[in-house]
Design brief:
- This protein is α+β, with helices and mostly antiparallel strands.
- The protein has one domain (7-157): Nucleoside Triphosphate Pyrophosphohydrolase.
- It is 19% helix and 28% strand.
- The chain has helices at residues 46-58, 132-135, 141-157; strands at residues 7-16, 22-27, 33-34, 37-39, 65-70, 75-78, 94-104, 121-127.
- Strand 2 and strand 3 form a beta hairpin.
Length: 176
């Protein structure tokens, strides 16, 4: 599903321990690390897609997490030209995402990266709240910065101190 502007609707998942550390996973067969994320089906709400992606990528179910909040509206990033498949129609030029902050209620043993037939990740760790900003692929960095800046406020409202962002994040704008 691609919108008229060429963006694929998608959800991002920031899974947080009570101590404020975040779930950070390595892509299968690559040295790239990221948060769980995935595309929405046309019949899904963002929250339904989030729970489906959470289960597919981590094996976690709704009772393993608590939804603390989400970014308002869509955050967008463009794919670098080398990743755009111009022969596909419609052409996807990037992703538009709603990001969710979840509190981990389950145990680490509940995480199953091999749950699906085609796993996304082969390893995970827990990192400081702002660590992903310096360690995600460049073209996702701005969206990560805006999402984490918003979700840090959500974390604080739930009694978790994420510390301070290493750089000033631009204001979060709601995009259609």
């Amino acid at each position: 599903m691609i919108d008229p502007d060429g963006y694929r609707p998608n959800v991002g998942i920031v899974l947080m321990h009570d101590d404020g550390r975040l779930f950070w996973a390595r892509r299968v067969g690559r040295d790239g690390w990221q948060f769980p994320q995935g595309g929405m089906n046309s019949d899904e709400t963002p929250q339904e897609a989030m729970f489906r992606e959470l289960f597919e990528e981590t094996g976690l179910q709704p009772h393993h997490v608590e939804v603390l909040g989400a970014t308002p509206g869509w955050l967008r990033y463009r794919l670098p030209r080398r990743f755009v498949r111009r022969r596909e129609r419609p052409t996807c030029i990037g992703q538009k995402q709603v990001w969710f902050l979840l509190r981990m209620l389950g145990e680490e043993a509940d995480v199953r990266l091999d749950h699906s037939d085609r796993p996304e990740f082969d390893s995970f760790t827990w990192v400081d709240f702002w660590y992903p900003l310096d360690n995600v692929v460049d073209f996702k960095r701005d969206v990560y910065q805006r999402a984490l800046a918003h979700l840090a406020g959500v974390a604080r409202k739930h009694g978790v101190d994420p510390g301070h962002a290493p750089a000033v994040a631009p204001p979060l704008a709601t995009v259609r």
